[in-house]
């Protein structure tokens, strides 16, 4: 079974990933959590949610070697979770789809980049998923459900940061800087 948790920043994607993994661990199932090395927000060895919840994670490179490592290291686990999937190459989707034949796989990531363009890897995982959990944040301008991530300054597509550099916005209040 493959569960995709998608949405903008500040929607609680990591919190939901941790919740799904913890229920499995409480039931005695062996779980492993991965995250990309690029993401060092808050705690280098844990998957950290913006609300402070944490879970121990294995950090792998967000490239083909990292995707290979996820496949290999998952072998003896019943539950496999990957956070921030948008940083990995699209081949991650095929690997998770394969793992999901035997295991519960939970994948969390951004749906759209700050320009409002889909992330290829997230898109592919959503297509393979048995269940898609689409989370919204709260628009910082109007308080309506936010499905987009607003960047407050221009820069590269992948730039890790939390509050201060990004805000959640609804469709109406999202704009591309620069
Ligand atoms: Zn709004």
Automatic annotation (TrEMBL):
ATP binds at residues 7-14, 83-86. Keywords: ATP-binding, Cytoplasm, DNA synthesis, Kinase, Metal-binding, Nucleotide-binding, Transferase, Zinc. Substrate binds at residues 158-161, 166. One of its GO terms (molecular function) is thymidine kinase activity. Gene3D superfamilies: 3.30.60.20, P-loop containing nucleotide triphosphate hydrolases (3.40.50.300). The keyword Hydrolase does not apply. Zn(2+) binds at residues 139, 142, 170, 173. The active site is at residue 84. Its EC number is 2.7.1.21. Pfam families: TK. It comes from the Archaea. It catalyses: thymidine + ATP = dTMP + ADP + H(+). GO terms for biological process: DNA biosynthetic process; thymidine metabolic process. SUPFAM superfamilies: Glucocorticoid receptor-like (DNA-binding domain) (SSF57716), P-loop containing nucleoside triphosphate hydrolases (SSF52540). InterPro entries: P-loop_NTPase (IPR027417), Thymidine_kinase (IPR001267). PANTHER family: THYMIDINE KINASE, THYMIDINE KINASE, CYTOSOLIC. Homotetramer. Belongs to the thymidine kinase family. This is Thymidine kinase. The lineage of its organism: Archaea, Thermoproteota, Thermoprotei, Thermoproteales, Thermoproteaceae.
